[in-house]
Amino acid sequence: YRVAGRIGSAFLNKLVEYKDKDNQNNRVILSDDLAEKFGEFLQLTNIIKNVRSDDTEGRRFFPREYRRRDVSYENMMDGKGVDAEDARKRMLEKMLSLAESYFKDSVKYIQSIPQHISGFRAFCKIPLITAKKTLEHIREQGAEKVFHGEEYSIKIPYGIGNIVDFSYGLVKNEDGKNANNWLDEFSQRPEKFSFKTGEYERWADKFRGNHRVIISPV
Fold it and tell me: Which terminus in the chain has less CB density within 10 A, N or C?
């Protein structure tokens, strides 16, 4: 809340308020509460992803009350045996549940952004989708790989090219009229929408039309 949450309300929302107007030429005021939930959703995803690198660099963000009382933090991170493995599994599940508890409010935040602020809507959709798909991937990979910091277990293996393509195509297609409908469906069944090449193409055109973005290699 004090970092990413406040960035949502005190920075992102203020940028919109100071710059953008609605159809009646009034300032656009977005919900600070939803903006903070969105920021916290993204921050919690990063905390889960970076548990190993944060620990290596001396940072500990996982709540003490989520840890098994009979297993120390050090043992949870590096211990062997059933208790240590169980502590890692429990911690990961609690953290995933905490992060995902902010997901639907994050979707509501993006839905509340007026359609004519299409660039900002697309800008917010990209990290929303990326974070949700990252959490799905992390859950599939399991606690042992995540706590060991194995890179393929904490990053979606297919990259974000299709996510960027879809996010911008969605706001361009029919001036973004499909965007909130898709967000409703994504909020209810995010696993239904795969961004893996070969699977992504089967459903994307229904929402984005023929609007595509060419992603240049970095």
Answer: C
- Give the model's pLDDT for residue 121: 87
Torsion sign, CA atoms 139, 140, 141, 142 = positive
Q: Exposed e or buried b for every residue in 58-74, given b needs 16+ CB within 10 A?
A: eeeebeeeebeeebeee
| CA distances (Å), origin 28, targets 21, 115, 150 | 5, 12, 43
Name the DSSP letter for residue 157.
Answer: T
Instruction: Give 128's contacts (C-beta < 8 A, 6+ positions apart).
Output: 38, 41, 42, 106, 107, 110
**Contact (CB, 8 A) for 105 and 113:** no
Here the tokens at position 179 are 């965007």
Q: For CA atoms 184, 40, 69, 78, give the dihedral sign.
A: positive
Structure token digits, residue 40 = 């916290």
Each residue of 153-171: pLDDT tens digit? 999 999 999 999 999 888 8
pLDDT confidence of residue 213: 66
Q: Which of 125, 70, 67 is nearest to 95 (CA)?
A: 67
84 φψ region: left (φ > 0), alpha (ψ -120 to 50), beta (else): alpha
Q: What value does the mean pLDDT of the chain take?
A: 89
197: helix, strand or coil: coil
